[in-house]
Amino acid sequence: MLSLVGRLVLLVLLCASSAHSACPSLCECSEAAQTVKCVSKDLREVPLGIPGYARNLFILGNHISRIGPESFKGLENVTNLSLSNNRIMEVESHSFSGLRSLRSLDLSGNQLALIHPEALAVPGGSLRELNLSRALYNRSAAMDLATALRWGALTHLQRLDLSANHLVLLPPAMFAHLPALRRLLLANNSLVAVHNGTFRGAEQLQELDLTQNGFRTFREEGLAELERMGNTHLHLGQNPYTCVCGLEDFAAWLNASRARVVDAHHLACAFPPELRNVSLLGLGGRDLGCHGDMAGEGADLALQTSYVFLGVVLGFVGVVFLFVLYLNRKGIKKWMMEMRDACRDVLEGYHYRYEIDSDPRLGPVSTSGDL
Ligand SMILES: *[C@@H]1O[C@H](CO)[C@@H](O)[C@H](O)[C@H]1NC(C)=O
Ligand SMILES: *[C@@H]1O[C@H](CO)[C@@H](O)[C@H](O)[C@H]1NC(C)=O
Ligand SMILES: *[C@@H]1O[C@H](CO)[C@@H](O)[C@H](O)[C@H]1NC(C)=O
Ligand SMILES: *[C@@H]1O[C@H](CO)[C@@H](O)[C@H](O)[C@H]1NC(C)=O
Ligand SMILES: *[C@@H]1O[C@H](CO)[C@@H](O)[C@H](O)[C@H]1NC(C)=O
Ligand SMILES: *[C@@H]1O[C@H](CO)[C@@H](O)[C@H](O)[C@H]1NC(C)=O
Ligand SMILES: *[C@@H]1O[C@H](CO)[C@@H](O)[C@H](O)[C@H]1NC(C)=O
Ligand SMILES: *[C@@H]1O[C@H](CO)[C@@H](O)[C@H](O)[C@H]1NC(C)=O
């Protein structure tokens, strides 16, 4: 009797534990919604026992520092995987190789310092969307990523978010192996130039976001690259455009390409102060102080130059004069003595004559004699 009760209790316990193992502790599972969430639970690694029905898997806001090939075993149905804000530093090769149905991968808000070359390989190249916003730790990580994008065979990737990563330079031809890429977000980085080949290979690109970067202008090479991507809609706002002569080509290109530049009407000068906030559309060489007024400016410049030259010459003459005076100081002193003596003589002569003149007895005679 007792043993039967014992067996029943054991059975109940087993059932309970197996029901429990259908969802990892600290996670919430919904079979109906095919969704598993493990949010802000201080997890140190991807939990074991995630149910196979999961299509949407959210593991957010934990402290997982590394993911590897063992992290997502047997999750062939996961379509959407979000791993954002987990402080992930390392992604090993083939971390996602078991996720045969994976279409959307969100790694945003991590600190990826080590991305192994085949980290992003997903079987069948099923991945459509990859979010790496605020995810790259430093420049080495960006180089690693370029390699992983090449080795990942991401032939169906359509959307790539690389915003807010402090990117200064894009490795050349970084997107060359993403033939299906349609939307590329590079907003809020520190990019200053587009080079020949920067976007080579992304032939299907429909939308490119370059807002909030460090572009002061786009030079010939960059304009040629943007021009080559004739079907891509561009976002170019919130850059520190510097409205001096070097912007002229870009301003002209912008005026001619305003249909493609989605925010063309919002592009404005950041410098110099007197042109701050002035729209780039319709700015000509004249406004930028290039050549619109070439003759007048040239003449002005020549005049200024000649004034400066005159000043220098006069200054030089003055210095020579002072130097000569200095060399002749003895002679000058002598000369001044002589002058003084001469003056004294003359004055004494006057004095003498004054005395004579003021003698009432001699006055009229002398005066008439002088006349
Ligand atoms: C994935 O989904 C299919 C169909 O919904 C199902 O038959 C299969 O068992 C699931 N895989 C796992 C590992 O549960
Ligand atoms: C995956 O997420 C996207 C939006 O993020 C959603 O439209 C799609 O339905 C999700 N996929 C599944 C299988 O739930
Ligand atoms: C990528 O993730 C960030 C933050 O997690 C989010 O704001 C952004 O909308 C995502 N990008 C895309 C294209 O969904
Ligand atoms: C990036 O960070 C990693 C890990 O801290 C370090 O080994 C590497 O030298 C850093 N690279 C650069 C360019 O700072
Ligand atoms: C830009 O990126 C930085 C981190 O790189 C982030 O802190 C900031 O919130 C972002 N700004 C916007 C407007 O997204
Ligand atoms: C860009 O580079 C390619 C080869 O990489 C070259 O054929 C082409 O002439 C270059 N274009 C410009 C504008 O320099
Ligand atoms: C620049 O213009 C925008 C609207 O076009 C306005 O909101 C902003 O205050 C202006 N900034 C300055 C410094 O004038
Ligand atoms: C801008 O383009 C229009 C034609 O699209 C042209 O008439 C106008 O002169 C251009 N303005 C400047 C400043 O280049």
Automatic annotation (TrEMBL):
Domain LRRNT: 22-56
UniProt KW Protein biosynthesis keyword: no
Signal peptide start and end residues: 1-21
GO cellular component, one term: plasma membrane
Recorded coiled-coil stretches: none
The keyword Membrane appears for this protein: yes
Keywords from the named record: Leucine-rich repeat, Membrane, Repeat, Signal, Transmembrane, Transmembrane helix
Gene Ontology annotations of biological process type: negative regulation of canonical Wnt signaling pathway
Residue intervals of the LRRCT domain: 239-291
Membrane-spanning segments: 307-327
Gene3D superfamilies noted in UniProt: Ribonuclease Inhibitor
Pfam families: LRR_1, LRR_8
Protein name per UniProt: Trophoblast glycoprotein-like
Organism per entry: Albula goreensis
